Every structure is written in structure tokens, then in C-alpha cells.
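Preliminary data (for renewal application), FE2/S2 (inorganic) cluster complex.
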Amino acid sequence: MEKIQVKVCLGTTCFVMGSSNLQELMELVPAKYGDKVEVSGSPCLSKCNIDWEYSRAPYVTVNNEVVFEATVEKVMREIEKQLSYAK
Ligand code: FES
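Predicted structure:
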């Protein structure tokens, strides 16, 4: 099974909108999912430059899914959803 790739946006807009609260994912995800899921920081994911989405930062991607107004809980839920598809 290919690893699920989680990318936490570390760009300025997302940082200002609270992506630093998502740092917890860096420890939580490997502890919970081991090598099934890989989490990393990313430069701007180019989601913040779409006007209507501006206020929906911070962004995280879980494979091809975009989690907007991301919180640790929302990202963990998306990971669970994708892991259940992979079974
Ligand atoms: S700064 Fe996060 S999508 Fe641009």
C-alpha cells in the first residue's frame, strides 16, 4: 500500500491563519499510523491565492483531498477516511 501523504502548508497566509497549531500532527500522525502515513511541511500549496478561499486557510492536503480551515481533528478524520478506502 502506498503511503498517504499529508502536507501541512507552512506558507505565510496559512501561518497567519493558524497553521502553527497543526505542528502537533508531526508527532501525532507517526505515533498513531506508523509508516502508513507520511506527514511533512510544505511551502504555499497555492490554495490561498483563490479569493473566495482566502479565509479558509490554513490548508492541509491529504493525498489529493484539500482540508480547509484545517484543525488537527479535521486532518485526522480525513486520514481515517482515506485509510478506510484503502482497506
Ligand atoms: S500559504 Fe497556505 S496555501 Fe498559500
